[in-house]
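Section handout 9: paired folding examples.
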Amino acid sequence: MNNSQKVVVLTELIEQMLNCGSWCGETHIQKETYFLQTLTDVPLEFKFALYKHGPYSFELRDKLTELRADEFLELVRRPRPYGPSYETTEHSNRLRMRFKKTMAKYRGPIEFVAKHLGNKGVVELEQLSTALLVTEQLGRNSAANKRAEHIHHVKPHVSLHDAINAVSVIDDYVDKAATLVPAS
């Protein structure tokens, strides 16, 4: 995927997240991009590592800064106690109009991720993204309780009950994402 295609996919994801009720802070974008890349195999090629609030990509953080500098995204200040959120710009809208094939190819996965995660808060996104990461590491065939225990081990503030719920949701998402038919 070339740089322009990445810009198109990321800005469309953010637009769809906003449409689905997301706050669109950096943490929201980090987690939903991780899902887009990992769960639906969109080849964004960001490296993610387990970090303070779940999977995090320093490359993606830098890309968001670049997209702001290039005026594809803007940072909008929100009232206290909430932090700023990202919004797309007219400049990014024009770019997405020019990349119709890329939009058509990735529209299904983007809509899937935004629909299932757009209205989630950062706590739930942390639990779900960590559950997906652990599922990727241990394998989908690994017992749900083993994956939940691992989540609780690496993130002790996530209760075992919440970890079990997150694994169950991830298993459901994996099944649903498998039915996505990639556009050619």
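Moving on to protein 2 of 2.
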Amino acid sequence: MVTEAQWQRVVTDALSLHGYAWLHVHPLMTRSGGWRTPTSGTMAAGWPDLVAMHPTRGTTLFIELKAQRGVLSASQRHVHDLLRQAGHRVYVWRPNQLAEVLEALR
């Protein structure tokens, strides 16, 4: 089974191969051993894993990566809805969708 971290590497490699610049905000481990992502604002909790931009196509993608059986949280659904309402392309990609990922990046 492909982990979300492995899947992210596949997708970021594909983004780079197709000329996209991309951003991923890494979570940090707290002293107590939990994980936190240092962001703030009304969209912080549901912000997508990756933001990718193609410099010559003028394309911006917001990408949530999930393990094969991963489920979107309510905050993720909310942020995705806001981004779509603003006219952005928002994707949720799972490992079994590699062909769709490559097609979207062409």
